[in-house]
Amino acid sequence: MTSWLPLSPAERSVAIEVLVHGPLSRTELARRLGLSQGSLTRLTKPLIESGLLVEAPEATGAAQARQGRPSRPLGVVADARCFLGFKITADMVYGVVTTLRSEVTGRLDRPLTTHDPDAVAALLAEMAAVLAEGRPAPAGIGIGAGGLVRERAVVAESPFLGWRDVPLAALVRERTGLPVVVENDVAALVEAETWFGAGRGLDRFAVLTVGAGIGYGLVLGGRRVPFTEDGRGFGRHWIIDPHGPLTPTGERGSAVSLLTIPSIEYQIRAATGRDTPYEEILAGAAAGEPMSARVVGEAARALGTLVAQIANFAMPQRILLAGEGVGLMDVAGNTVHETIRAHRHPHADPVDLETKVSDFHDWARGAAVLAIQVLVLGEGPG
Which domain of life is it from (predicted)? Predict the structure, then answer.
């Protein structure tokens, strides 16, 4: 992947600030980075000459209101390069193509009929070729997978795919000729939200995902905190209620047994003998159906407890709740918020809880941001 090289650390910080937060006026850019106008001019001149930064159009009103020498905001040419992102589930691959600013410009999904690593890599390469048609040459590929990923290259363990030590980055790189970075899917989503989403500009930020599993990510000092539990399904050991339900995939009363979609469906099936999809369970709870209301109520209290624990111990400025299970908030949001308040100091500031209804394309976009980061940070993929 052609990186933003050669750039000094100071030049790179200017370029990244404009990418993530721009277009920015030179005055605002200097303020954000603590630079004098002279230093900023020295740093931005080679970036503009190389075409990395451009002077963006300025609103007519702003140009008329400003006195003195004209100075248009600095921006990046977002569509000069494209990036491919993929999210792999047990039965589907979801793909997107994005601009340099992570704006999705195309989507492509394919069923996953086998978990054979070579076949999966071939499918990813085929999808990459289709997504890249008629667009600027892709600068790289990012792949998000549920499970433990090492060195941003090897899927060390994935229960959804039945994989162990699969060198996925190398397999896809061999078939596409493009640099490839692989990461745990929750970690990829956290990176995307930190750079371009709900966590942009925040020093402390947390992400909690609810769906097929439980995911958690923490950002401190504007950077994601890596930890060895990424992708290990630690939610099954995050005990919320030691007397709570027991499911085949979680310890008794764990976050997994109380909150995940498969566990909620399992509880209803065990009680009624019928397979009921998650959305129908939520609808039943909203309509006052007793069994659904009980299970959904327990899930809502578990979610409120988790959010309060995160707020109490990590002290984030914002918590993002994402994933395919966040429809729970539409049905039992009041219970979630009441539980959060019950587990917080009475004089504590309200938790800034943002809910994002996510589909798997959001996860694929997160993977594309991994490729963007490799380019702009000048760090080669694993």
Answer: Bacteria
pLDDT, residue 160, reads 84
* Residue 345 backbone dihedrals phi, psi, to 5 degrees: -60, 140
pTM of the model: 0.85
Phi, psi (degrees; rounded to nearest 5) at 320: -100, 125
Token pair of 120 as six digits = 């999966």
Q: What percent of the chain has pLDDT over 70?
A: 92
Looking at residue 82, its amino acid is C
- Domain range list for the chain: 9-76, 80-191+362-377, 203-316+325-357
Contact 185, 87 (CB under 8 A): yes
Equal CATH topology for 9-76 and 203-316+325-357: no
From the list 368, 363, 375, 360, the residue with the least C-alpha distance to 132 is 368
**For residue 381, cis peptide bond before it (omega within 30 degrees of 0):** no
Pick from 25-39, 57-71, 191-205: least confident? 57-71
Q: In what order do the strands lie in the sheet with 223-224?
A: 223-224, 214-220, 204-210, 318-323, 353-357
- C-alpha to C-alpha distance for 177 and 185, rounded to whole angstroms: 23
Does the pLDDT at position 1 exceed 50?
no
Run of H or E including 54: strand 53-55
For residues 181-207, average pLDDT? 93
Which secondary-structure segment (H or E) carries 136?
Answer: none
DSSP string computed for 348-377: SPPP-EEEEE--HHHHHHHHHHHHHHHHHH
pLDDT at 64 over 50: no
Q: What is the pLDDT of residues 276-299, one digit of tens each?
A: 999 999 999 999 999 999 999 999
Mean pLDDT across 238-259: 85
Pairing of strands 154-158, 92-98: unpaired
Domain 9-76, CATH among 3.30.200.20, 1.10.10.10, 3.40.30.10, 2.40.10.10? 1.10.10.10
CATH superfamily to which 203-316+325-357 belongs: ATPase, nucleotide binding domain (3.30.420.40)
Q: Does the 80-191+362-377 domain belong in CATH 3.30.420.40?
A: yes
